[in-house]
Every structure is written in structure tokens, then in C-alpha cells.
Design goal:
The complex is a heterodimer of chains A (162) and B (258).
Chain A: H1 2-51, H2 54-73, E1 75-76, E2 79-80, H3 85-94, E3 100-107, E4 111-118, H4 121-132, E5 137-148, E6 151-160
Antiparallel strand pairs in A: 1-2, 3-4, 4-6, 5-6
Chain B: H1 2-63, H2 65-74, H3 81-95, E1 98-104, E2 108-109, E3 133-145, H4 146-157, E4 163-172, H5 175-183, E5 194-206, H6 213-218, H7 225-234, H8 238-244
Antiparallel strand pairs in B: 1-3, 2-3, 3-5, 4-5
The chains are: A alpha+beta (162), B alpha+beta (258).
Chain lengths: 162, 258
């Protein structure tokens, strides 16, 4: 009889604990939800504050400009590595053989077209050989060769080695 | 007695059913909300850190006003035709070449945008709608001796305004052009070393950035000091340019026979 009562109270006790737990949870859920919502609001406010920061606009604008400058000047290890026209002219001077002169030079980022004048075909051939073995130019394309009153004229198109 | 004996398992079963049906979902719900709170706290911490980093970067820029001056002067936020004309004229005088013509055209947007366009989930392009590099194309004609044209071209590329040289054409001045000049009443100097150079160059400017939340999220609050140092070294310090000049190997002037 006593053990029957014990079992009944025990099972009622478990039920009571579960019901109490459920009631406590029902009370606790809105509290944590409120905390969550408050945090979400704080995040929104903080984000809004960042967007309105004057220093952000200044910093982002400066960085944006620096990105464009870096891309254009091809900056590597604090040095500008973009190709300079004077370098192309120097390369050409380095590859010129004697008895040759340039009458016209055209550069357009992709390629260089040079009109050469030579005393004779021999000098021109040597010049073409020099360009074909150049450290600076490749894809040498002889556009035309013609004899004129002043000697031999030749137009050569070439690309600058990267 | 029998009822009392059955009461325990029945109540236990009811308790289990109540636990599974009502209590456990609530526990899961709280677990989920707590995870959400932890994530939000992390996000808030990140926002605060970013905020502090932005403030620090802003302070650095204010304290070192010359950084902003150099950068904004090199890549301005609006067209500066007057500066471009004045600088080119100065460079021509400085290099001792004749500035025959400067022609500036109306600006155009550069093909490549400043940053990649980012498409939001609803399909709208949200970044960089208007903030891209714009250019002022210019054509410059000069006449002078090879060495002087070389100095002009060198200084033109190092001009303290964002520029991209599109093309350069250098040719010997022919009798035909001498004739044209004579007809226009310009004095003709009969000099076989005189060259004509036509340069097509684009000068750039960039609108002030428009900030939105996505840009802020992608923002890295570290100043690119490498570019600043390189830019300061690159834009002209006249004395330095002369000092840095190293005569090229081979022919000094490819337009004359040696």
C-alpha cells in the first residue's frame, strides 16, 4: 500500500517538474527573444553610424583612388613598373645598327611601328637581324621594304616584350 | 490497488509525451536564439572593431593631410582642364620644345570599372553604379630636337595628374610641314634634327565615392602605403629627374645616322 503511494507521488512529482519546466521556459523564451531583438537593433544602429562616419567616406575615397593609381602605374614593391615611352625609345636606340636611322616612330600601347632608312640593303638586313634577336622586342613584322632616292626604306611593326 | 499500480506508468508516459511535445521544442528554440545571440555579439564586435579601425584610419589621414593632398591632386574628383593645360605648357617650356597644339576632348568613362559590380540576391547591381574612372582625352603636338622631346615625354608621363599615354608618333619634320608652317606665318627654323611628336594621352578623374552598406562590409581599413610611397617618388621632383637620368646604351638619338 505504501509502495503504491510512493510510486504515485513520484510520478506526480515528475509531471509537476515537467510542467514547471515548461512554464519556466515559456517565461524565459520572450526574455531571450527580447535580448536577440535588442542586439539586432544595436547592430543596425551601429551599421548606420559607420555609414554616416565622415572619416569612412574620406578613407574609402582615398583607398579607391589609390587602387586606381596602383593599377595604372603598375606599382610593385614601392616602384612604378609601367612602361615608359622613353624606355621604348632607349630600347630602340640600343638595337639600332650603324648606317641606320629612324624616320618615323609610332607607339600605341600594343605595338611599335618604326620606319627605318638605311644606306644599303646590307645595313637593313643587319638591322632586321638585330631586332629579331632583341631583348626588348618580339613578333617582328616587316611591313614593306623599298628602295628610294635616299637609300632603302623599311617599315617594321613589333611588340614590346613584357 | 490495480489502479494505483497502473498510475505510475500512465503518469510517466504522460510526462514523457508532455516533455517531447512541449518542453523539448521550447528548449530547441532557446538554443537557436542563444546561437543567434552569440553570432550577433560577434557581428557587433566586428562592427565595433571596424568602426575603431575606420576612425583610426580617418585620424591618420587627417594627421597626414599631405597623403590626401597628393592622392587627390593626382587623381582629382572633377575635371581639371586648366591644370592639365598649364602643366603641359610648363613641361613644354621646361623641356624647351615648341608646343604646337593641345586639344582636349569631352570626357569618357573608362571601360574598366573601379571595383567589380556586386549583384545582390534580388538581382540589383548595388555596387559601383556611378563610381568609375573617367577620362579627358587630349592630343598634344610638339616640335623640337630628339633629346628635348624625350625629356618632355618623360616628364609628361610623370605629370602629377593621373594619365595613360595612348599613342606617340615621332617623325622627322618634312619640307611639307615647313611649308604649312610658313603659310600660317610661323617662323620656320631649318633644322634637320627637328622632330614632330603627336601624343594621345588620357587624363583621369574619379568621382567621390558613394557609400552603401555593402561597400562598408567589403572595406579593408588599411591604407595602401606602398602606392603612396611609389607615387611620391614618381611624380616630378625636377632635380631628381635630372639626377636620375642615365644615358641609354647604344644610339643616343635613333633619328640621326651616327
Amino acid at each position: 500500500m505504501k509502495s503504491g503511494n510512493k510510486g504515485m507521488f513520484f510520478s506526480l512529482g515528475i509531471l509537476a517538474v515537467i510542467v514547471l519546466l515548461f512554464a519556466a521556459l515559456k517565461f524565459y523564451v520572450p526574455v531571450v527573444e527580447g535580448k536577440d531583438n535588442a542586439l539586432a537593433e544595436t547592430i543596425l544602429v551601429e551599421k548606420g553610424k559607420i555609414v554616416n562616419l565622415k572619416s569612412l567616406e574620406m578613407s574609402m575615397d582615398t583607398q579607391n583612388r589609390l587602387t586606381e593609381i596602383k593599377k595604372n602605374l603598375e606599382i610593385e614593391n614601392e616602384n612604378v613598373t609601367r612602361l615608359e615611352i622613353t624606355k621604348v625609345l632607349d630600347y630602340l636606340g640600343e638595337d639600332m645598327s650603324s648606317g641606320m636611322l629612324v624616320s618615323e616612330f609610332e607607339y600605341d600601347q600594343e605595338k611599335v611601328v618604326v620606319s627605318f632608312k638605311a644606306d644599303n640593303f646590307n645595313n637593313l638586313a643587319l638591322q632586321i637581324f638585330n631586332l629579331k634577336n632583341s631583348k626588348y622586342f618580339d613578333e617582328i613584322n616587316i611591313m614593306d621594304v623599298a628602295r628610294s632616292e635616299e637609300g632603302v626604306e623599311c617599315n617594321i611593326e613589333m611588340k614590346i616584350k613584357k | 490497488m490495480k489502479l494505483k499500480f497502473l498510475f505510475f506508468p500512465i503518469m510517466l508516459s504522460v510526462s514523457v509525451v508532455i516533455f517531447i511535445s512541449f518542453v523539448w521544442p521550447e528548449i530547441n528554440n532557446i538554443k537557436k536564439i542563444n546561437e543567434d545571440i552569440i553570432a550577433k555579439k560577434e557581428e557587433l564586435k566586428e562592427i565595433n572593431n571596424r568602426n575603431a579601425a575606420i576612425e583610426a584610419l580617418g585620424k591618420e589621414l587627417v594627421d597626414n593631410a599631405d597623403i590626401q593632398n597628393v592622392v587627390k591632386r593626382y587623381l582629382p574628383s572633377n575635371k581639371t582642364e586648366e591644370r592639365i593645360i598649364s602643366e603641359i605648357n610648363f613641361l613644354a617650356n621646361d623641356a624647351n620644345v615648341s608646343l604646337l597644339d593641345i586639344s582636349l576632348k569631352s570626357g569618357e568613362k573608362a571601360a574598366a570599372p573601379t571595383t567589380k559590380n556586386v549583384t545582390s540576391p534580388d538581382g540589383q547591381e548595388t555596387l559601383n553604379e556611378i563610381n568609375s574612372l573617367q577620362t579627358i582625352p587630349a592630343e598634344i603636338s610638339i616640335a623640337g630636337e630628339y633629346e628635348k622631346i624625350r625629356i618632355f615625354l618623360n616628364n609628361l608621363q610623370r605629370m602629377p595628374v593621373f594619365n595613360v599615354v595612348k599613342s606617340v608618333k615621332i617623325a622627322k619634320q618634312t619640307n611639307e610641314t615647313d611649308g604649312e608652317q610658313e603659310a600660317e606665318g610661323e617662323p620656320v627654323v631649318n633644322n634637320s634634327n627637328l622632330l614632330l611628336a603627336d601624343v594621345e594621352i588620357n587624363f583621369g578623374y574619379l568621382d567621390t565615392i558613394k557609400i552603401n552598406n555593402q561597400k562598408v562590409e567589403n572595406f579593408n581599413a588599411i591604407l595602401d602605403n606602398e602606392t603612396i610611397v611609389a607615387l611620391k617618388k614618381y611624380i616630378p621632383q625636377k632635380a631628381q629627374l635630372i639626377g636620375d637620368y642615365i644615358a641609354p646604351e647604344g644610339k643616343q638619338n635613333p633619328f640621326v645616322v651616327n
